[in-house]
Amino acid sequence: MMDKLLKNIEKEVIGKREIIEKVIIALLCKGHILLEDVPGVGKTTLVRAIARSIDVSFSRIQFTPDLLPADLLGVSIFNPKDGKFHFQKGPLHSQIVLADEINRTSPKTQSSLLEVMQEQQITVDNHTYKLNDPFMVIATQNPIEHEGTFPLPESQLDRFFMKLSLGYPNENEELLLLNEDFENNSLKPVLSGEDIINARKEVEKVYVSEAIKSYIVKLCRKTRNHSGIELGASPRATLALYSATKALGYIKGRDFVTPEDIQFLYIDTLSHRIFVTAETRYQGRDGKAILKDILNSTPVPVGD
């Protein structure tokens, strides 16, 4: 079932199978994605292809400095005819939400996403509105623009299941882009929201051995006492890596998790959740480099 979804998305997103897999993994784990990349590499195309491949509601929000929380959540408007306030839903009341250039809006507006990303609900005027399942936020940001931007706080970054980067296509992939007629390629849904919910139940059945669980915990705990890391991965990161490996096993057609699954997902699941020291940055190293060191220095469980 997931292979059908993957192949449909690849009709519009060329050469990014690994990234597509990871976005699907996040969807199966009720997670959200942060796409950080330069303009023009296909971030919006990827999100639209995913939304069109699943028969669910979709909205795109362009984040700007003057955007207010009410512009996202909705607002109660007074109707003089009946003398009552009526709630008008905002664009967050969709199932797949593209939050474009999320770091261009104010911290106040950014924080309005915390409840919806964590609890899948919106509270306005003391009323709580549950959002339809499946629900997913895919946010984008440009890593090279700093003027007029508001970096996401640690609490918000931790709500994102993974941080991904599409990167530039290779030469053959870029040639394929020139030969494809994307204007006439309108994707049709291949799965329903109910299919995703049922797939999540199957993910829960994937077996994780005690040795694999111990491997996950060791990899996450090592970020908390590493000399080059100021703030290590939270327990939420451990749980995210655990559920992500189960979803990957399911996508690959297995009913168990392997150490390779953990290695495939470790950096993308944790890199945005750790913060390196000033000395590490001075040395020209980032969180991904340290996570690679941890991965290489941690014994891999065998024979389980």
Automatic annotation (TrEMBL):
GO MF, one annotated term: hydrolase activity
Keyword Hydrolase tagged: yes
Alphabetically ordered keywords of this record: Hydrolase
The protein's name in its UniProt record: MoxR-like ATPase
InterPro entries: ATPase_AAA-3, CbbQ/NirQ/NorQ/GpvN, ChlI/MoxR_AAA_lid, P-loop_NTPase
Transmembrane segments: none
Organism of provenance: Acetoanaerobium pronyense
Domain of life: Bacteria
Domain ATPase AAA-3: 32-162
Enzyme class: hydrolase
Documented EC number(s): 3.6.3.-
Presence of keyword Hydrolase: yes
Domain named ChlI/MoxR AAA lid: residues: 221-293
PANTHER family assigned: METHANOL DEHYDROGENASE REGULATOR, MOXR FAMILY PROTEIN
